[in-house]
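Q: Could you write out the predicted structure for this multi-component system? I'm mainly interested in how the pieces pack against one another.
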Amino acid sequence: MATTVLKSLNTALHEMMAEDERVLVMGEDILDPYGGAFKVTRGLSTEYPKRVWTTPISEAGFVGVASGMAMRGLRPVVEIMFGDFLLLAADQLVNHAAKFRWMYGDKVDVPLVVRAPMGGRRGYGPTHSQSLEKHFLGVPGLAVVAIHPLVDVGKLLRTAVLDDRRPLLFIENKKMYARSLRQPLNGRMGAMEVYSDGAVYPTATLAFGGLVGGDVTIVAYGGMVEVALEAAERLLIEDEIYAEVVAPTQLQPLQMGPITQSVERTGRLVVCEEASASAGFGAEICAALGESAFNALEAAPARVAAQPVPIANAPSLENQLLPDVDDIVEVARTRIGSIKGPRRTSFG
Amino acid sequence: MATTVLKSLNTALHEMMAEDERVLVMGEDILDPYGGAFKVTRGLSTEYPKRVWTTPISEAGFVGVASGMAMRGLRPVVEIMFGDFLLLAADQLVNHAAKFRWMYGDKVDVPLVVRAPMGGRRGYGPTHSQSLEKHFLGVPGLAVVAIHPLVDVGKLLRTAVLDDRRPLLFIENKKMYARSLRQPLNGRMGAMEVYSDGAVYPTATLAFGGLVGGDVTIVAYGGMVEVALEAAERLLIEDEIYAEVVAPTQLQPLQMGPITQSVERTGRLVVCEEASASAGFGAEICAALGESAFNALEAAPARVAAQPVPIANAPSLENQLLPDVDDIVEVARTRIGSIKGPRRTSFG
Amino acid sequence: MERLHDPGPARRFAEAPGLRCEKLYRQMRLIRRFEERLLRQFEEGDVSGTTHACIGQEADAAGVINHLQKGDIVFSNHRCHGHFLAFSDRPELLAAEVLGRATGLVGGRGGSQHICWENFYSNGIQGGIVPVSVGMALAEKSTGRDSITTVFLGDGTFGEGVIYEAFNMASLWSAPVLFVVENNQWAQSTPVEKELAGDMVARAQSFDIEAGSITSTDAEELYDHFQPLVHKVRNTGRPHLEVIETYRLCHHSKSDDKRPRQQVEARKKDDPLPKLRKRLDEDAAKSIEKEVKKRVEQAFLWALEQPFAGDEELVDPLVDASP
Amino acid sequence: MERLHDPGPARRFAEAPGLRCEKLYRQMRLIRRFEERLLRQFEEGDVSGTTHACIGQEADAAGVINHLQKGDIVFSNHRCHGHFLAFSDRPELLAAEVLGRATGLVGGRGGSQHICWENFYSNGIQGGIVPVSVGMALAEKSTGRDSITTVFLGDGTFGEGVIYEAFNMASLWSAPVLFVVENNQWAQSTPVEKELAGDMVARAQSFDIEAGSITSTDAEELYDHFQPLVHKVRNTGRPHLEVIETYRLCHHSKSDDKRPRQQVEARKKDDPLPKLRKRLDEDAAKSIEKEVKKRVEQAFLWALEQPFAGDEELVDPLVDASP
Ligand SMILES: Cc1ncc(C[n+]2csc(CCOP(=O)(O)OP(=O)(O)O)c2C)c(N)n1
Ligand SMILES: Cc1ncc(C[n+]2csc(CCOP(=O)(O)OP(=O)(O)O)c2C)c(N)n1
Ligand SMILES: [Mg+2]
Ligand SMILES: [Mg+2]
């Protein structure tokens, strides 16, 4: 049986705690037998009772506590039960953890990892379904990594915890926990060829029939990667449109290389994100791509994103407002069909 | 003597409190004789002691209190002493005030105005000099308005407080308080012609010699507007480059009309912001412009922004890392000189 | 849409004790029945996401909310069904909401945790509702109304710093707020001793807020206990915090209960429903149960026939409310 | 760069009372002189932004910090000069920092409020340093060190919710933290009675944190008072909170003092410097003053010769610290 995203993360935590005394986990309701709201921390408190800190409901406070621990040599891995609650720790992240290193003349490190499950499609409603990572992009000193099932997510977590000296947001996705890791085999995944840029937080580029003849580049991260892959398949089958899917994991600082290279091949860009579009990941990609590969663009870059409203509880309504395969297919078609297609999203 | 930004805001508050019993102001240290850190609230507590709520140092708490007041019919105007402290109220703004209306099936309004002085160049250091409004762009339900001295800032505040039913961030700029309002006279300001789109939160477009023959569009908001105007002047004198400066006041939801129209005339776009570039205002403008006027673009849109580090305290260092007239001039030249100029900013 | 039941004015129970017991029992029965029915619906796959039942804590809602008057405000949290039903007596609207229907309380947008109806509100972020409630109370007071605001919070929510900011301002500014703390001994999977140092009553008092506590799941006892407290808040215009020591007999949210079975079993003796039922004669109890069963059934049948939310223009609230 | 003065080990004053008084006076004199000199420099336009002097509160730093050992941590706030100088005895580095020089404590990046030197830290956001300090204390403890962490906070900072989150965790998890509250009766322009309801000692106690208070600007008295408290935190590994009732004799930050003149004048009798000076013989006092004057002068002269910060590669900390 293939390993799930959940299992991979959980195993990585177990291994790190076994290997390195400095590693600790902290968050709400993470003790066994409950083991955390999404069970990423399951079993840890049984094996390492002293290094599992189940917290009061104090997101700002325990992110601050963990920052202090990180500055004094420990390697805290903090869980925010639902990524929606990250905003409570915004000041601690931006005005404390992320600032300390530079502000203190490079005298300190804050090797803090904050894990946050984001995303909707589980009917959790307006305060438990958001994708808020966009609000933490562009914070000097704060790295943002978002996993997806095509990479070894456990290994990424290890890198973030053991090797990275930056305070780092590690974005997970609730729907993704149950998904199997889909590691490419011999450079292939299903009918697609898979290329990695080999970075510590890698970007995967997937294409049918190799990196030639692509018509459009679809950039997606986190929970939208598999949605984008499905869209790519449909575009091929229904329209004979060849899409390259580019899936970065490091959102901040952005690694534009693989995206630029792909658009230089395809001439067209569609960026997908689960949050609403305004001033988010897609905005940054479109702007950065304009700066890095403007001449390659044959059509206006487009964004596929959520409607600019809160995430509704009713699944019927939630589905309607979150971006899906249809939306990507439709927008990608417009990029091919005309140089100026209609936009799906307004701003919010 | 011309009215300053400070005076205009202060007068508007006085007038509103005289006219409308529902209006109240709330914030730290706003009582006379001190009258607020930047004196925007000066005199109010003397005249309206019952409607001036000086608060404990509780940014989250008093934004929450004001939201509750707004939901029950009052018109609170909250001051965050330094915009840097807004992050403490992020959850209150995003998961409470901004969500209530839609989430509650349009049954409630939250006519809350939160004023926040942003920006650097006063030597206040890393926690008192930021321009954090970009992190609040793209929040469904939260309007963001940023003033500049070419508009009647008092009138904008009146609109925000009395007419707007949305929770609204009202972004001021510390350096700007002492500046004189520069209302256009007969459609002119100095040597430039001034056009307004007439929106409630207007966008001003300024150009030498009218809206023809422009070479580049420079978009700027808030404290960067006057920097951009200076750059436009220098571009004209030194390079005979005609720049149109487009200065919006409503950042969210974005009003792309005047920007699109200007780029359709000039073919080139430079966006200026005082924050670091990544996932900010400039990113959104570049992305949205790509969607609205891609065909008009003759050169890659460019951003002028701060270096992706905290804002240093030492003025020598602060100047070095904040964007200035030179930076705009330099980047604008590259838009004209070559279709693909070098970038000034990296991401952060 | 036809109104299934008249919510009636406040102070419903200033009547003979027998009658009071009946009415409190009916109310709690409605809450219990509603949630049990909802959980069944959940198991049938009709409810998405999660939902927090208040089984075992029904007496809190009944004991407090019946003292409120027209114009009073209630702000509740994730565990809001009981509070809402005691406030509104409108099970059908809540059922439709939780089932994701367009005619639900807030059109399916909020679901179980995020509802709004007249002066009743709830939100799913722990703690943040407390300052908002203080603001509501101050607004009402400043416009000369004598209404009070009641906000419900749990023991776990004492972890959130913003509530202390709110306590401070409520006290400094004399907000007529009744903070009702339901200490059910657990925050999700965490026992109170692992999340709370010291004492909640003392915490409130250290902000110069009068505070007390009662250990009870007896709705009549709670009703008597809160009567003077509600009066006091209204008359003094000052805040008060009262802790109810109680216990949650169900899971935290849908099926995630890992508490020691023994502990839960031992607390079943405190179930508020049998407590009151014993005081009724069997016929009265049976007739209430029958009536409630029918109402809840009707509410769900009605709700299940309602159209699903969606297919609406998704209106950006920014555009909609701009001047 | 030459070290102007040896900071020496902790427990400097476990000596004869006379000597102790001299040393405490020298330390406070250094702080006072430094800040007066800095304010002069400010008026000459050499300091940008703002700066928060602690004139009148010097005894707090002297009374507490001299009990600390090597390895102990101090986290201070916006009003950090006194704490820093008592901790480090390095006026020249602070002068260079506040004057925006490349060789300042943190290369001119932080300025007056944001400094770091060995185990000393400060930040300009009210409240946020408190949980960070708790984390530092827990980290030290968990790695077997017996160091303690001292964090300074003001009365106004009791408005920030995050400090209660930190109190709760410090208590639950037994963090060896000494919370030192300098209640100078004002938060910027706001008198304590307008920002603080209830009582700070009771607030801490309600989190099961031992707490007390002392009304004093007498450095010797404070020194004696804090000795057992520092010991207790170290030996019990538990937090303690102590409020010092004091008064700020200067503006809040550069030249913004609107407090009633009478009140300020009346408090000048509590100035901690004359208090100790009276106990010294005139010659000793004069010689200390001369020595301190010279040191401060040297520190500023050195600082003023340092290169301005800037013209460096502005290294993105993200890129710099990536794996
Ligand atoms: C800010 C925030 N953090 C965490 C949660 C997740 N959460 C929901 S309910 C709950 C426990 C609340 O405990 P308590 O306040 O005792 O209320 P109870 O559930 O016992 O009624 C938690 C941790 C949340 N909803 N909001
Ligand atoms: C989060 C935050 N809010 C507001 C401020 C602005 N501010 C700086 S010092 C101060 C007053 C602090 O009062 P207190 O804690 O009593 O310390 P004191 O200045 O009296 O030493 C305020 C409001 C800040 N720095 N940080
Ligand atoms: Mg509880
Ligand atoms: Mg003070």
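A: Regarding packing and overall arrangement: Chain D touches chain B through 46 residues (CB under 8 Å).
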